[in-house]
Amino acid sequence: MDDEADNVFDDSERKKVMATKTPLSAIVQALEELSEFLGCQMKVEELRLDTFCDACSLVSVLFSCLGLAFKFAEMEYVAKVRDLVEASKRFATLENVLDVDVANDTVKKPGSHSRNLRRVRQGLDLIRALFEEFLSSEDYSLREAASTAYAQVCAPYHTWAVRTAVYAGMYTLPTREQLLLKLNETDHTVEKKMRRYIEASRPVIAYIDKLYISRKITLDW
Asked: Given Cys at both, which of 86, 97, 122, 139 links 113, Cβ 3.0 to 4.6 Å?
């Protein structure tokens, strides 16, 4: 009887945890699993493309929470992730994708999987930079954090028209309170999870950069 009661309690607690799991929690957990995999000194297998795509797909909700200012970034990010999801049906790992494009001299070709991987990496880095700027400002200004993060990560690679549209859209960003509401977080929980995202994303971003650099591909594009 006690065992049955314990099982019922366990199930209810598990459902409660699942029900209270926020989008940011799911994103952080997925990236931490990737980071842990990449940090394992004993690993011999390469990072699977489908696993990478599963984690990256979750991140798109963060762009949608930022509204019009990041609509272009959201559309670009989602499209590139979708392309990599399709590619994962034919390529097992990120390395496979790059090796094929290197062999065909199509790494930087618009629409190539390697170019799209580069853009997805920028998306992950943009969120990292935004979180860092957000947490480092005294008043937690989302507009200033987003403007600085965009200028650092994406602006150098966007056309004048796109940059102009993004900066104009910064005035439509949600307030701090609105962002917390959209993410279903509190001041306390969001800060902890943002810091976890920052730490977990760094090795993933570095890993992708290394794939290009090791193949003598520059990162200035």
From this structure: 97
